[in-house]
Amino acid sequence: MSAMTAPTTDLPQSAQSSPQHEPLCSPLGGLDYVKVSAEARAESRNREIHLPPVSTYRWWARRTSAVNGAIIDEFNKMMPGRLVVADMFAGGGVIPLAAVVRGHQIYAQDLNPWPAAGLTAMLGLPAPEKLRDAASTIEQWIHTEVEAAYGTTLADGTRGVVSHTLRVATGKCTGCGTRARMFPHALVSLHLRKESGNPQAWMACRRGHLFSAKSDKRRRCPDCRVLVEPTAAYTPMRTITCECGKTDRLADRASTWEWEIVLVDRSSRTAREVDTPTDAEREQAESRGWQPVHDLGPITPGQETSVLTRHGFQSWQDLYPARQRHMLERILDIASKCSEDPAVVRAAELAVVGSAEMAGHLSRWDRFYLKGFESMAGHRFNLTTLAVEPNVWGGEGRGRGTVLRRLNQLVKSATWLQGKTRRELHVQGPLTSATPVTPMNEWDVRVVEGSSEQMVLPSNSVHLVLTDPPYHDDVQYAELSAPLRAWARLANEKLTNEALTGEAVVNSATGQLVDDGAYEALLGRIFKEARRTLRPDGHLIFSYANRSPRAWVAVLGALQSADLRAVGCEMVHSENETDHAKRGVRACTLDLLLDLVPAGPSAVEQHRPHPAPDIPLTDERRFLTVVADMFLQVGDLKTGWRAEVQQKLAEHPFIMSPTAQNKEVARKP
């Protein structure tokens, strides 16, 4: 029997329906937003400390457990007992975590096989000691190969490892044909972290010569005597100017790009040094002995992948130097045999695959703090001409995203999770959306991979649908997760040219859901399916943020078509205020929490926004107030509402550019 026609069966013993004569209220009205806001900000600044399990797998645009956990708690006051909570856009898994640590059952679904695998591993983390034993086993088996790949000698004669290998891209000028190093900045790297106050650094002149000098004043290059300004940028707006005077886009040189090792970061237990590589270190990094086996597949055109293909990257393996690929494959193979417990193997493999986000031809070097950045940081693929290859295994406490660090974090995550739940959770999945419908019964967690147009839940079985849907075209999850899916070998019949057919994301590059009605229609089908699973007294609550009037029109239309009605709305801080890619720009830093119930005869007592005192009266807050007024009409939207919403939002100062605002002011009498 399909999910669309499944009967109600065996509901959990929990909250009873409220009497029909009482008006339906929103749990949003009971939240302490000052407290929740403070907790959300603290969590956003250091998620691995406040919510360790989220480090189990990489995801983008996670909301906070502070907000979602508070919603669950308030809802639980209205409906005492163990709840069934469903998240049909589970993604980063914050909502499932917030539910299970409170003792509730969780149904988590996502179209993308990467988060489906990650959710299963994260929520099913085994006992910490099992993970600790697995990490020790992997370390013993890989030790000799790690030494061969990264072992070195520091300047003081002590043995250590190469923690990072820095390469600069070289390319031929399209005018004179001269090949040159394309350093992005004159300051290549400090010798010590910025906090040390030591200005000694590796500098580069415009001709690509590298030399050591103090970075606090101009210096002449010792090779060519060109004056070097420490703050100079050599590749502004992804362009570079040759000595012959010809200015190229970096993409113009894509067919001639090659990578040259220029610096290594060595470390031991007591010392660290950033220096030019020795001949032995160059040979070690570029050895023909590194023979990767697996083909990771082509990079196909997309909204985010276009920056890669324009600059010469054709396949996912192009993002990785041969040594890094070889070591990732070896450690992944060892991880698959590290334990008899499938949950341990699953988690260990995710730790290895996760380290692939530090791609050695794409990860950017932080010249002030001496660390690499993820190659899919800030909701975008990095593009740099000074890339850093990490020591895949890690060691001596160095290296973000290394396998060793990820394995250690797994132990911390399992310790935290079992400290909250007092046991290992009973996790079912990942199932597919075609799995026959059954009640949750003894399962703590059910994870499903597939479109949420069909949920593997009986009708009228869910107390609370709490979710975080994709925000129109803000984040291209399928593209960003594609290299990780390739490493995890998560082949899926729904994968077509690296896109996920049916993903609720607008992508102009691939033509996905770009029609005005397509995004709305898909969301409408998903919300209608969620409504099917809701009990008559259940609620659907989700957060949403967007600057696009079209996105808001689509969301309101989808909710209306799903036969839902608004019961409450509130404004909260989003994580974007601590997102380096969003700070200082005209991006959304607030979310609207939207609360709906199935349409029916019961009276509704609506909760209108009462923003916390720490949310200033900005254009964004005024904009969301307009949206909230329209949202609270869902279930009874009048003819012509689309044009009204579109016009009101499009003309709002938060949406209009400063230039357009000035013209509008000048036009008015």
Question: Could you please describe the fold and organization of this structure?
Answer:
- By secondary structure, this protein is α+β, with helices and mostly antiparallel strands.
- The chain folds into two domains: 24-124 and 445-667, Rossmann fold, CATH 3.40.50.150; 128-184 and 234-409, no CATH class.
- Helix content is 31%, strand content 20%.
- The chain is built from 17 helices and 27 strands.
- The strands form eight sheets. Strands 19-20-3-2-21-24-26-25 form an eight-stranded mixed beta sheet, with helices on both faces. Strands 4, 5, 6, 14, 15 and 18 form a six-stranded antiparallel beta sheet that branches.
- Helix 3 (65-78) crosses helix 4 (94-100), helix 6 (128-150) runs antiparallel to helix 9 (322-335) and helix 13 runs parallel beside helix 14 (549-561).
- It is globular and about 80 Å long.
- Residues 1-20, 491-499, 576-586 and 659-669 have low confidence and may be disordered.
Brief summary:
The chain has 669 residues and is of the alpha+beta class.
Helical amount among residues, as a percent range? Answer: 25-40%
Spans of at least 5 consecutive residues whose pLDDT stays below 50 are: 1-20, 491-499, 576-586, 659-669
Taken together, the total number of domains comes to 2
Radius of gyration (CA) equals: 27 Å
Large-scale geometry: globular
* Largest sheet composition: 8 strands, mixed
CATH superfamily of the largest domain, called what? Vaccinia Virus protein VP39
Q: What fraction strand?
A: 15-25%
CATH architecture of the largest domain: 3-Layer(aba) Sandwich
CATH class of the largest domain: Alpha Beta
Secondary structural class: alpha+beta
Largest sheet, spatial ordering of strands: 19-20-3-2-21-24-26-25
What is the total tally of β strands?
27
Round the mean pLDDT to the nearest integer and report it: 88
End-to-end span in angstroms? 65 Å
Oligomer: single chain
How many DSSP H or I helices?
A: 17
